[in-house]
Design goal:
single chain; 78 residues; alpha+beta
Length: 78
């Protein structure tokens, strides 16, 4: 998202909402980009990672085969 200093003054909620959606906000002044506002990256605990890992959906064979094929093509391109 792009925002001006005026946007931040007049519609701070719009800018904050974009950041909450994990969007980077490019701050511009007179059409020139001069700053970037990035959302904070929050880590997760080991227990939360394990819970998410164990509850993830498994890849089906067709998708796993496609991923393996794509990786093979990338390796051959190097």
């Amino acid at each position: 998202m792009e925002a001006t200093l005026t946007d931040i003054q007049r519609r701070p909620g719009r800018v904050a909402d974009a950041i909450r959606r994990q969007e980077t906000v490019n701050l511009t002044e007179r059409g020139e980009r001069f700053a970037e506002i990035q959302p904070c990256i929050k880590g997760i605990s080991g227990a939360e990672f394990m819970r998410r890992w164990q509850s993830r959906s498994r890849l089906g064979k067709p998708l796993a085969d496609e991923l393996a094929n794509q990786l093979k093509q990338l390796d051959q391109a190097q």
